[in-house]
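U., I forgot to send this yesterday:
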Amino acid sequence: MKLNKNEEVTTKIKNYDIANLKPNSGWEYLWKDLKDLGIMDLPSQEEIKK
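Result:
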């Protein structure tokens, strides 16, 4: 299948189960690490410009 630059490809999903979208493991550790490192909030645009 060859597409031109301006063509869009879409796929329709007929059915899904939200309960199955959660990963088996790892998220609890990620959130704990983010909280422990103090990086849960991003800096403001003004702070980034400095």
